[in-house]
Design goal:
Layout (H helix, E strand, L loop, with lengths): L14 E4 L8 E8 L6 E8 L6 E7 L8 H15 L5 E6 L4 E6 L5 E7 L7 E6 L4 E2 L4 E3 L5 E5 L7 E5 L12 E5 L8 E4 L35 E6 L4 E2 L6 E6 L2 E6 L9 H15 L5 E6 L2 E6 L7 E8 L6 E5 L13 E3 L8 E3 L1
Antiparallel strand pairs: 1-14, 2-6, 2-8, 3-4, 3-7, 5-6, 7-11, 8-10, 9-11, 12-13, 15-20, 15-22, 16-22, 17-18, 17-21, 19-20, 21-24, 22-23
Length: about 350
């Protein structure tokens, strides 16, 4: 899979990733080509160490090659291998930055180079360096004397991972709506799901349902969309200013007191990490039978499901230290809802430390 690959659901179902596994392949780099002679026609054997080994006899023609120039010899080896290794269990590439010829397996097996011959002086050789944690099976120098063997054995690991995220989000565990899925036996979760939300402003008594009542359906197993009579969204990208380590952030939601201490591990909190701390505080403070708290990456949406005539209200926003914290406010991702009278909560400012929104 190419880095940056985008996957979209064509049916509206949730996208998840599970069963992620990585084939650990052996790899070697070839360079420092020495003592080859112009006009040499070389042969060498490339093989896997699988239970049913794949063996390829390679031929490298140095006719017309300036063998005093190691880079030209490397290019000749690469050109020959590229042509002769198609449709095999090997890949070959030229690393232009280092001048090395890179060989790898594709089936998880190790590889070896042997029976190298054809040098006029029987004194030619090249350096063999293992890649990606592979273990060498020789002394690191392939001699063209028809008796030397060099190669590598793949280093099997279980800590490989796949990072995936919503568009525009970073690809680390702490970034917006990102997830890391690892191999079985490793230190990462072996499955993960990213979900999103959409806000729809409806007339009273109008409902939205889905006929897909599975866990992968748009509205889950119930088939019913969540609804409420008032909502407000807090935070978002760049929505947390001066939320510093040790600050006690306090405010009320419809009279329910919310208070928590910012915990910063000294590396600086991402917006997604700020959102997680806010989400934890809100879910602890608000009754689940009257409010739904939704985290979408860097933003937190509060939906009031309890019956009420007044709009949802966030009041008394403050931090206990510098009184300089600010928190962005909006009404979610839909249209048609009434905008809050303040789009920024400012700590300690009697005119801007509260907001209400439908």
């Amino acid at each position: 899979m190419v880095d940056g690959t985008t996957i979209q659901s064509a049916s509206g179902t949730t996208i998840g990733v599970q069963g992620f596994e990585v084939i650990d392949n052996a790899g070697i780099a070839l360079d420092n080509f020495q003592n080859f002679d112009a006009g040499d026609i070389l042969t060498l054997t490339l093989a896997t160490d699988a239970s049913s080994p794949e063996t390829v006899t390679l031929t490298v023609d140095l006719t017309g090659v300036d063998t005093s120039d190691s880079s030209q010899v490397a290019q000749a080896f690469y050109d020959a291998m590229e042509e002769q290794l198609s449709d095999t269990s090997f890949t070959v590439e030229m690393d232009e930055s280092t001048g090395q010829v890179i060989l790898r397996t594709t089936d998880g097996s190790g590889l070896s180079l042997s029976a190298a011959s054809g040098d006029t002086g029987d004194d030619a050789g090249l350096a063999v360096t293992t890649l990606g944690g592979s273990t060498t099976t020789g002394d690191g120098q392939l001699d063209f004397d028809n008796s030397d063997t060099e190669g590598a054995v793949a280093a099997a690991t279980t800590d490989d991972y796949l990072a995936f995220a919503l568009p525009g989000c970073g690809e680390s565990a702490g970034s917006s709506a990102a997830a890391l899925v690892g191999e079985a036996g490793g230190s990462y979760d072996t499955a993960a799901v990213l979900t999103g939300s959409v806000t729809i402003f409806m007339e009273p008594d109008v409902t939205i349902t889905s006929d897909n009542t599975s866990s992968a359906g748009l509205f889950g197993a119930s088939g019913n969309a969540g609804d409420g009579n008032s909502m407000i969204t807090l935070g978002g990208t760049d929505g947390y200013t001066h939320f510093d380590d040790g600050d006690v952030i306090s405010f009320d939601v419809d009279g329910y007191a919310v208070s928590y201490t910012i915990t910063d591990p000294s590396t600086g909190l991402t917006d997604a990490e700020q959102a997680q701390q806010l989400y934890t505080a809100l879910t602890a403070a608000l009754p689940s039978d009257g409010y739904q708290v939704i985290r979408n990456g860097t933003s937190i949406t509060i939906v009031r499901t309890a019956e009420a005539d007044d709009p949802l209200a966030v009041t008394g926003f403050t931090d206990n230290t510098g009184q300089d914290a600010t928190l962005a406010v909006s009404t979610g991702t839909g249209t048609g809802a009434e905008a809050p009278e303040n789009d920024l909560l400012v700590s300690g400012d009697a005119g801007d430390n509260s907001a209400t929104a439908r």
